[in-house]
Amino acid sequence: MFGGFAALKEVTIVDGLPKTRSGKILRKSMRAIAEGRDEPVPSTIEDLGMPASLRPHLRPE
Q: What is the pLDDT of residue 2?
């Protein structure tokens, strides 16, 4: 059971998430995209095109 603070507004299915080569998800980069900020992509990213593919899905409100 979820409270009002954890209610989902929207769910989007994407092909993948930006990860490092060791498999850690780049949450800071995804947060920056969602806030409309340009964040430098870490050099340890596995797929350089992944953050750009998420931009249409993670938009600022």
A: 55
